[in-house]
Amino acid sequence: MAKCAVCEKAAHFGIKVSHSHRRSNKMWKSNIKKVKVNDNGTPKKMYVCTSCLRSGAVERA
Length: 61
Prior knowledge:
The chain is mainly beta.
């Protein structure tokens, strides 16, 4: 499973509860993209979540 290289955000696990209160396992995946990033002037591919991309924590190549 991919993890954000900036904020280390990854998948979350929990229990889904239906209307009749039956419980089953659930996984929430974070929105992570493989992006070309400028790392000290050299382009490099990294896994970054979309919230880090929007906030400007990463500069795209």
